[in-house]
Recover the amino acids of this structure.
């Protein structure tokens, strides 16, 4: 069996992203585009607002007009433009958002006017343009409105609607196949015989890939049997653009994933200097990325977070591929166990709760950090990055933390019922 | 028309949350529970792991056994337990994750052993329990696994699968009706006559409420006509639990929303001391919250963010209702315009891009901050909170910013293609 060198996590991520390409694009309806990334530049075809509009309730007037009393010759609500022209000595009652009538060049807000017998008097002079939103204030015709690569959230959806875009060109979403392996796993509705555990990775990886914007399909569960695993892998790669396997990547005799990936494609790495997730394997079959994730639930989710999620983000056209990292202060000491009597030779990613108080981030780990203990991820909003070569961290030491998705960082005064 | 006092934003939020109740619960399939909030305490019915398991590839032995060479009496893979008992003088070859055979109390990792002629010798002594994950290490039978109020993400979904939960009790999602108003609005596929603009709020509010976890329905568009608006409001409240209207809440003669809400229910406030969003109106009709959002696109989205989103989060059982707030340093001066010659009397929420560099958050506003300019929200990842009473902020001044959803805060070294 091939011996793979153990490479640093940063190098592993670079290799993954090098072998991951931005997907093609598709045209979707405006609603479907929510959460997607724009794949075309959107240029305004018309001014926005399309006409000079009043910013206040009041009177549309000519600023230079020195008349003391002006005849009110009409009323312009927000809505279709009425047919009237403002001339010296006249004014039009106008509402916020309504189009400024021709002739007028300013709005006197109603609070600064006095009305009597169908006429109005300004209590303060107005300047040309006062309380008028000029046409094109938000956007001038021909101006670039949204750039390629813009993630589409509520304001962007609103802006696209404003200019009448009903269909939008966006990057495609990757289709991800999840294939679990291992004789020890049973499905949720099957009885637990001695030695067996339930297949939780199927659901956890489905959830993680869904949250990352992928369209996830279940490619089945392979027993530790080469023929079955090969068949399921080939089938999965026929229908999906990305394959995630879980389990079968250690160096045991029944760890079949690495040899099969060597047979079907190119294995780019087979060991990463990290804990959890050392046996993580990354390959391409044709152009398709394949992640051989470790079987332990925590290892597979941490590897997903560090490598699969950035790849899926890249495929969807995102330019921000990584989570934010912040410096955190440890609220308790951490002692790592190395190999035998040596210092740890791998970066350890410990699950933690990060809290912000008075501008400082504090971190507390989520208890026992063994790879099988999924509970160490429950409620965690950060991953501490504890670099190789150091076995002990004191209370008060500053380390880097990756803030996870759920990480609206807990803050002292932000809880409210 | 009733005159409503202008209340501070903090008071407005308290009133909204006071009149918003957590919804009932429902039982859903495991997959459907992703992103929902747990409404039952989940207790482990069995130990997890369910059996003592090996943490390494190696040999299951009795730690106290002083035999030099041990007979290899079997091989235990991860999977069903084989029928063998370890006795002094014997060992069982074992793989990571495999159940520890009866009799054995420790695992010697393969790297610290020597094999010859069907026998194995330990190169280092082992302690009882060494490299064994005891049954119940992650979770003991009867232990509380997930508390009421836990948001369900990938690790929680994995944990629920681990213990065989195929259906989960979660809080219901609110059904939100969006009703737009105003004679000046046309639908996207209609021609833009002079004085008219497109109905963007329909889409922006749909997107915002969807992102907040609601099930959104379109309740139609009402012209500025009392009968039509009343009919659409009543219809919407028959099918939805929350009503959002946009437009028609200023004090103009055709601003019909406030009077109609007074007729149909109780108006709790009708003006908030903030910019944008001063005319925001909040009412309840029966038990159902109704938000009369201003018509300007920015005003309606900012009000959604500040008041509607927390209410929708509360309804779904979330305990964290507000976005994180951080202190930011202004990279440019900001001058606010007050009423006439007075200082600003409202809290101003300016849209900004917040960037983190070396542990400090920097904020830059997104250009012209007028309420109609939806572009001021595009790409914004923060809302600056500029308190009333102060008209000028210098470059370098520290103010509070609300970090928005999209706010994976831009960081210098975090962009990567």
């Amino acid at each position: 069996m091939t011996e793979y060198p153990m490479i640093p996590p940063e190098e592993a991520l670079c290799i993954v992203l090098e072998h991951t390409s931005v997907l093609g694009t598709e045209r979707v309806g405006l609603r479907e585009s929510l959460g997607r990334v724009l794949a075309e530049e959107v240029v305004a075809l018309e001014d926005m607002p399309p006409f000079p509009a009043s910013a206040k309730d009041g009177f549309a007037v000519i600023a230079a007009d020195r008349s003391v009393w002006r005849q009110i010759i009409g009323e312009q609500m927000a809505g279709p433009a009425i047919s009237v022209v403002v001339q010296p000595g006249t004014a039009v009652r106008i509402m916020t958002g309504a189009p400024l009538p021709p002739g007028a060049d300013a709005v006197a807000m109603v609070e600064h006017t006095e009305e009597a017998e169908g006429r109005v008097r300004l209590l303060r002079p107005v300047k040309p343009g006062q309380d008028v939103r000029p046409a094109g204030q938000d956007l001038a015709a021909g101006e670039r409105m949204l750039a390629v690569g813009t993630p589409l959230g509520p304001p962007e959806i609103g802006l696209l609607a404003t200019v009448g875009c009903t269909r939008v060109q966006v990057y495609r979403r990757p289709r991800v196949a999840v294939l679990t392996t291992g004789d020890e796993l049973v499905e949720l509705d099957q009885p637990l015989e001695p030695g067996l555990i339930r297949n939780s990775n199927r659901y956890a990886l489905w959830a993680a890939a869904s949250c990352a914007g992928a369209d996830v399909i279940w490619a089945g569960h392979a027993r530790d049997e080469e023929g079955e695993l090969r068949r399921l892998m080939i089938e999965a790669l026929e229908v999906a653009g990305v394959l995630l396997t879980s389990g079968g990547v250690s160096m045991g005799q029944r760890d079949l994933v690495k040899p099969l990936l060597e047979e079907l494609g190119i294995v780019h790495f087979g060991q990463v200097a990290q804990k959890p997730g050392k046996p993580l394997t990354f390959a391409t079959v044709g152009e398709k990325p394949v992640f051989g994730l470790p079987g332990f639930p925590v290892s597979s989710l941490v590897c997903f977070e560090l490598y699969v999620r950035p790849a899926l983000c890249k495929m969807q056209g995102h330019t921000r591929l990584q989570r934010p990292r912040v410096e955190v202060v440890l609220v308790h000491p951490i002692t790592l166990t190395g190999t035998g009597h040596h210092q740890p030779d791998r970066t350890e990613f410990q699950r933690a709760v990060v809290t912000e108080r008075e501008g400082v981030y504090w971190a507390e780990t989520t208890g026992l950090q063994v790879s099988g203990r999924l509970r160490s991820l429950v409620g965690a909003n950060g991953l501490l990055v504890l670099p190789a070569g150091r076995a002990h961290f004191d209370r008060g030491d500053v380390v880097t933390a990756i803030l996870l998705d759920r990480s609206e960082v807990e803050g002292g005064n932000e809880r409210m019922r």
